[in-house]
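User: Here's a chain of 143 residues. Predict its fold as tokens.
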Amino acid sequence: MELWLKPRLCASARFVPQCDGDLGQRLAAAVRFEFQWGAKRVFLVGGDCPSICHDYFADADKHLDEADLAIGPATDGGYVLLGLKDQHPGLFENIAWGTSTVLEQTLENASRGSLSIGLLPTLEDIDDAASLRRQSRFLSISS
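Assistant: Prediction complete.
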């Protein structure tokens, strides 16, 4: 499957197994790995927000020119995008993943780390049938 996916994503795509642990531990490991490979900026994106577009990424990238983090809040209290230009130990710790307090707890961790934040517009991700219906205009589904 990697041979099929890699050319479609980009020539430099890397496929790395996730580590064990909760979502925060897996996100922290992914960020650490990418910066060790020489990334200058890392963007973590949920796969359940079809309204994210190129301009949203461009805005996040611009925020990182001035801020430590770029965060795209989700309507459910989480986030749809998190951009970083450095590793920030502790950013993903003590977060109740999958709850309406994820963004709030992430912002608290960022504040404790004295990190500056660039906030993007809030977007809706898909969490249930109702949000799927609302977001369906962004989906291109063929049978």
